[in-house]
Amino acid sequence: MTSRLSLTVLVDNTTLTDRDFMGEAGLSFFIETAEKKILFDTGLSGLFFTNAEKMGISLRDLDFLILSHGHIDHTGGLPELSRYLAGATPEGKQPRLPRLIAHPRCFWPKEKDGVNNGSSMSEDEARQQFPTSLSEKPVWITEDLVFLGEIPRRFAFEKGDPGKRTIHTPGGNTEPDYLIDDTALAFRSAKGLVIITGCSHAGICNITEYAREVCGENRVADIIGGLHLISPKPKQLAKTGKYLNRLHLDALHACHCTSLPAKLVLATYCPMQETGVGTRIEW
Predict the structure, then answer these.
(1) CATH classification of 5-282, choosing from 3.60.15.10, 3.40.50.1220, 3.40.50.450, 3.40.50.620?
(2) Cα–Cα distance between 161 and 231 in angstroms, integer?
(3) pTM summary value
(4) Considering only Cβ atoms within 10 Å of each terminal Cβ, which end of the chain, N or C, has fewer?
């Protein structure tokens, strides 16, 4: 029997109307499924704690901490999470620490326009704070939820341009940053896959195709997260819309790094739903 999953948006660039939450240029989701509690990304700061408290969500007993990629707007809350878990533990007892799962390149130092925009923690610091698993391969969190690992780049129209983004390798070299560490989650629901993304630097069509392959399921019910369509070229946006249209989605919950013009265009191809801090969805 397929399990159920609930997702609550703790951090996004926008908030739902008439809700007493705050937003920031980042993303963080709280996920529950198969008696597991998962924090997916930590936003830009410790704001996810503030919003979680207002929602009555406790983050003391997380099972997993999953990072979509190594940018600061998705990892900025890591130090706050580490301090919180240590402070929330009675003296003399070991804190319950979630297992951190990410791509091996997630913690490599990154820059854009010469300014650091990479993870707020180094790999060594992360390993000191959390039991850590770094994987290019898919990692099954539960029987129905999978961390996809490295996403094959198959669609030419989603080929990323690193621009002025650079990454520093462990060997000391500096390379253009194609954000190979960008990944996502996929959940097998009764109605088809639910794709949970951070920024979709790998391309939402590439991510979805790989999720279908990994999960052995062609149906896709919903996509939620950033689509990295801030100012896409019309050709790319149209091809993305046509691809999503062929999926016959029940809903598209585009947020974070998806601009309003891009949402308006995609809404002509598939059922766009409002998404922001406070959104809670069950599948």
Answers:
(1) 3.60.15.10
(2) 13
(3) 0.96
(4) N
